[in-house]
Design a protein that fits this description.
Helices cover about 10% and strands about 40% of the residues. With about 160 residues, it is mostly beta strands. It is globular.
Length: about 160
């Protein structure tokens, strides 16, 4: 079976990637929520970037470029990871023996939700958390996301489409 590490082994610098994912969104009220564990978010056709981070941090660089574009000082520095350990020179994070792909979202894909496998309207989901907004007025947000390998259904990179 192919792993994320296998797929990302040839990333040099930054690469553009297409992703299709199925994730379980966190709902408010946790296990007390009647929809807990029964909702899935299906995203198709997301455009993301992955970074090797060999000589410099791609996320830090992008944040500082966008701060500069908006007329703010370029003093952003990436802190320590809150969880997991990034694999050296790869966009892979390991946590409790599981692989995750760290990406910067350029364009979210088409999204739909299911409840117990059946389509459900977003507004009908009890306790779905609202999307986060950009942190500074006038600065284009740099959305960094980390997807568990199990949630990635298809990766498109370097002219290949790989079904996981």
């Amino acid at each position: 079976m192919i792993t994320l590490t296998d797929i990302m082994a040839d990333v040099s610098g930054a690469s553009f990637v297409g992703l299709d994912t199925v994730t379980s969104p966190t709902l408010l009220k946790g296990k007390k929520n009647p929809m807990h564990g029964r909702i899935q978010k299906h995203m198709t056709g997301a455009s993301v970037m992955v970074f090797q981070n060999k000589h410099t941090n791609g996320y830090e660089n992008m944040r500082n470029r966008r701060l500069e574009e908006a007329g703010f000082p370029t003093t952003f520095n990436v802190g320590e990871r809150a969880w997991g350990e990034r694999v050296e020179n790869l966009p892979i994070v390991m946590h409790k023996g599981k692989e995750y792909l760290e990406v910067i979202v350029l364009k979210a894909g088409e999204v739909h939700y299911t409840h117990d496998g059946q389509p459900i309207a977003k507004e009908d989901i009890i306790g779905l958390k609202p999307a986060q907004k950009a942190s500074k007025e006038g600065v284009r947000e740099v959305m960094i996301r980390t997807f568990k390998a199990d949630s990635i259904k298809t990766i498109r990179i370097d002219g290949q489409s790989i079904t996981m």
